[in-house]
Design a protein that fits this description.
Bound molecules: adenosine-5'-triphosphate, magnesium ion, fe (iii) ion
Number of strands: 11
Subcellular location: Cytoplasm
Order of helices and strands: EEEHHEHEHEEEHHHHHEHEHHE
Helix content: 40-55%
Organism: Microbacterium galbinum
GO molecular function, one term: tRNA N(6)-L-threonylcarbamoyladenine synthase activity
Catalytic activity: L-threonylcarbamoyladenylate + adenosine(37) in tRNA = N(6)-L-threonylcarbamoyladenosine(37) in tRNA + AMP + H(+)
Shape: globular
InterPro entries: ATPase_NBD (IPR043129), Gcp-like_dom (IPR000905), KAE1/TsaD (IPR017861), Peptidase_M22_CS (IPR017860), TsaD (IPR022450)
Radius of gyration: 20 Å
Number of helices: 12
Strand content: 15-25%
Structural class: alpha/beta
């Protein structure tokens, strides 16, 4: 099926068009620059930017795919989770488009969309089930057990406080580096020693593991970096930015990879899929590939343009739902900022 997907859960206005498992276009307009001076995504600013970017993005995606609105078999949209106001813009647009064109509408889960991104990865074998998925971005840090993309996704664990990307952004700020912090910390860490400072690995003590084996926490790590910086200032010594950046990054990467591979081992699943904007981190990819190989786990990493928020992954998930016989969503859905990952599709019509 030819599907147009709309993604507006955070600061990317993503419009993607797929034909089945083939990617035709993937237009992404980001309002990141507008959030830079606030050091994080401002919901109202993001929602407004979506409103402005939607129509031109849809036009651009159609032109690039070489198709017209009338050719579409379905429209897909992210219903949640994400920022409520931002989601509402996409949901409203998708409903309007589907009703005006008289096309079926599929309202889907953003996190499951991140997994669906893998399907569009050209020239690769189809995703095998079950698989463990680690999704890390500015808004989420989730470990999932995927038994079937369209029917069975289980949340194993998630962050109890900051998302991993958010931790990069906050620590960059502590080091007086600009937003977004991920790429800045990466750059600063190049000349640093990852073992210079032993920063805490959240929820990794035996006592924590009993209850939070697959959960993450990055606020203690952020506080530890803040204390380190304060101590340098109190002592009148220059903050060793490269060492702090490298050591902080190592702590985040270590805990992400350790917990993801623990899930693979515990559940006997020798496959790990990575997704989300933090996957841009070279060190994270290297450590994941290295330790997974040692553990006999194969790792899949979609290209970065499909790892960050985008509309193509939303269209791809809808195309899979259609192929597996799911009915379209009724219009009885809205933006759901806390949509659980188990709700892969929202408001599926009941056939009688
Ligand atoms: P969502 O959470 O809804 O997926 P988002 O906009 O918060 O959306 P992305 O756009 O996928 O997330 O990713 C942005 C985040 O990724 C930012 O927090 C940024 O600091 C982080 N990031 C980007 N590049 C890197 C990198 N090289 N290393 C670590 N983090 C990175
Ligand atoms: Mg983003
Ligand atoms: Fe996302």
């Amino acid at each position: 099926p030819l599907v147009l997907g709309i993604e507006t859960s955070c600061d990317e206005t993503g419009i993607g068009i797929v034909r089945g498992r083939t990617l035709l276009s993937n237009t992404i307009a980001s309002s990141m620059d507008e959030h830079a001076r606030y050091g994080g995504v401002v919901p109202e600013v993001a929602a407004r930017a979506h409103l402005e970017a939607l129509q031109p993005s849809i036009d651009a995606a159609l032109a690039e795919a070489g198709v017209g609105l009338a050719d579409l078999d379905a429209v897909a949209v992210t219903s949640g989770p994400g920022l409520a106001g931002a989601l509402m813009v996409g949901v409203g647009a998708a409903k309007g488009l589907a009703v005006a064109l008289d096309k079926p509408l599929y309202a889907v889960n953003h996190l499951v969309g991140h997994i669906a991104a893998d399907i569009l990865t050209a020239d690769s074998e189809p995703l095998e089930y079950p698989t463990i998925a680690l999704l890390v971005s500015g808004g989420h840090t989730s470990l999932l057990h995927v038994r079937d993309l369209t029917t069975d996704v289980e949340l194993l664990g998630e962050t109890m406080d900051d998302a991993a990307g958010e931790a990069f952004d906050k620590v960059a700020r502590l080091l007086s580096l600009p937003y977004p912090g991920g790429p800045e910390i990466d750059r600063a860490a190049v000349d640093g020693d990852p073992n210079a400072i032993r920063f805490p690995r959240g929820l990794s003590r035996a006592s924590d593991l009993a209850k939070h084996r697959y959960d993450f926490s990055f606020s203690g790590l952020k506080t530890a970096v803040a204390r380190w910086v304060e101590k340098c200032e109190a002592d009148g010594v220059e903050v060793p930015v490269a060492d702090v950046a490298a050591s902080f990054r190592e702590a985040v990467v270590d805990v992400l990879v350790t917990k993801a591979l623990a899930a693979c081992a515990d559940l006997g699943v020798p496959r790990l899929l990575l997704g989300g904007g933090v996957i841009a981190n070279r060190r994270l990819r290297d450590v994941a590939l290295e330790r997974a190989a040692a553990a006999g786990v194969t790792v899949r990493i979609p290209p970065l343009s499909l790892c960050t928020d985008n509309g193509a992954m939303i269209a791809a998930l809808a195309a899979e739902l259609i192929s597996s016989g799911k009915q379209p969503s009724t219009l009885a859905f809205g933006a759901d900022s806390t949509l659980p990952v188990t709700e892969i599709q929202v408001a599926e019509a009941v056939t009688v």
